Amino acid sequence: MLDAVLPIVVLITLLVSTIILFGVAATDGPLQVALLVSAAFASLIAFKNRHTVAAIADAAVGGVTSAVGAIFILLAVGGLIGTWNMAGTIPTIVYYGIGLLSPAWFYLASAAICALVGMITGSSWTTAGTLGVAFVGMAQVLGLSTAIAAGSVICGAYFGDKMTPLSETTILVPKLVGGGLTVGQHVKNMFWTAGPALGISLVAFLILGLVAEHGDSLSTEEARRALAGEFHMTVVNLLPLILLIVFSIRKAPPFLAILGSALFAGVLAPFTQWKAVSGFVDDPSLSPFVTGVRAVFDALASGFVSKSGNERIDELFSRGGMASLLTTIWLVLGALAFAAVMEHAGFLRRLLAPIVGWATTRGRLILAVNASGMGLNVIAGDQYVADVLPARMFREEFAGRGMAPQTLSRAVEDSGTVTSVLVPWNTCGAYISGVLGVSTAAYLPFCFFNLLSPVLDIVYGFVGFKVPMLETEAVTDQKETA
After folding, report:
1. What's the DSSP call for residue 419?
2. What is the residue extent of each domain of the chain?
3. Closest to 410 (Cα-Cα) out of 459, 361, 447, 446
4. What is the distance between the alpha carbons of residues 162 and 357, in angstroms, rounded to a whole number?
């Protein structure tokens, strides 16, 4: 147990130290260094316990390899934000959005819309990286809090992600839990925590909108005129968004769907936003064709830079590019390297074993699953680790007590999946913070859905509300499956 705890102590000490020393800038490098040093320390403890250097190296490489898909998605989203800004897609969403959405119910509307889009796309990442970016931009224009706006986007996106059979984790968790659990049963049971959590969140966002104080902002008409002065406003600008939704519905791989939409926006931009494109490249000696090609590559790689002369507009839409997410990728790699060493050496299982033994009642058992999921999001830095380990470790205990598999799957999702975005060095927290441009610490207090979901699940466990049990004759079959 001491060997398992020591790397955690080192990790927490280094993380806290970097946050105290560097503040918000900790995610620009110091946190990444802390994670890698912690991974090296965990490796030394593993060597002491007779794990070979080759085995630990292979485990670390394997942990990093597991994130390759997520890394490609991160890069694609960075490129998408750049070309969507250049093509006027995000500015157009902001242009129409500030004309339709009153500041009083802006937070409520952004959460509700992101929930709907999340259900359609099946991805909280895609929703946050597209509409989420636009909603945070609208909040800036309207003088509203970007932290609350980010919280509303996250609440809606994660609810939508959990309430659709298109989501990766919604498909994965029932398979991990076993017992013949279907995705439909899992989603239906999960609604009993997700539904009330979103409902309370929407009420909270409505109240926050009604009492919101507007900061330094342009008036709606001033903002619309400024946007129309820099970008040619037309519904054609929304074609990249429509294409992305079509790709998602057709179940195209996320990386290809996002990159395809980004490339389409880049090709569209010279035809619809020539003024912005030529100003971005700023080289009159180039032909229109070469200017367009260069603009696409620059926007994808380094992000679009608006040169309208309007400080507010230029600040808002000069974003994106694959390079802008490299520090986020660095953070993800550091977290996964640490998690891989901890898992391979058996440290994570050693930490969880006493928790399983402590869970002697139904309420304690569900509390233990939620605590394990949230703890692993902090320690391991990846939602998949936080989903996989509790699902594997607790399924036999749930089966032995005659508890239906959807009870475990809901607890796993309400903790491992939903709270991942609340940890700065977690893959989800790093991604969302990176694309929205809002720190995790800033938006965390307003992620009501993500905070309430595990709380409701734990309360249900202790009071016995909506905790499905197996029929007596099914308990034996469930034990055998587990």
Report:
1. T
2. 68-324
3. 459
4. 30
Beta bridge partners of 403: 469
C-alpha–C-alpha distance, residues 181 and 70, integer Å:
27
54 class by beta-carbon count within 10 Å (0-12 exposed, 13-18 middle, 19+ buried) = exposed
Residue 25: how many other CB atoms lie within 10 Å: 12
State how far the Cα of 297 lies from the Cα of 277, in Å rounded to an integer: 12
Per-residue 3-state assignment (H helix, E strand, C coil) for 321-341: CHHHHHHHHHHHHHHHHHHHH
| CA atoms in the 13 A half-sphere facing the CB of 262 | 32
Identify which of 374, 321, 329 has the alpha carbon closest to the alpha carbon of residue 70: 329
Joined together, the tokens standing for residue 99 give 């004309």
Nearest to residue 422, comparing CAs of 460, 458, 389, 381? 381
DSSP 213-232: PP-S---HHHHHHHHHHHS-
CB contact at 8 A, 83 and 301 = no
Q: Is 311 exposed, middle or buried (0-12, 13-18, 19+ CB in 10 A)?
A: exposed
Residues 6+ apart with CB under 8 A from 154: 124, 128, 132, 421, 432, 443, 447, 449, 450
Task: Report mean pLDDT in 10-residue bins for the chain, 482 residues.
Answer: 90 85 80 89 93 90 77 87 92 85 89 90 83 89 91 95 83 83 91 96 95 67 80 92 87 87 95 92 91 94 86 81 86 81 86 81 92 86 79 83 92 94 88 90 96 96 90 51 50
Neighbours of 100 (CB within 10 A): 8
What would the two tokens of residue 196 be? 């009330």
Residue 420 pairs in a beta bridge with: none
Check if the beta carbon of residue 374 is closer than 8 Å to that of residue 426: no
Q: Whole-angstrom Cα distance, residue 372 to residue 353?
A: 10
Where helices occur in 302-404 by DSSP H, the ranges are: 311-317, 326-344, 347-358, 362-379, 383-400
**Amino acid identity at 212:** A
SS3 469: strand
Which amino acid, residue 262?
A
Pairwise CA distance, residues 11 & 5, whole Å: 10
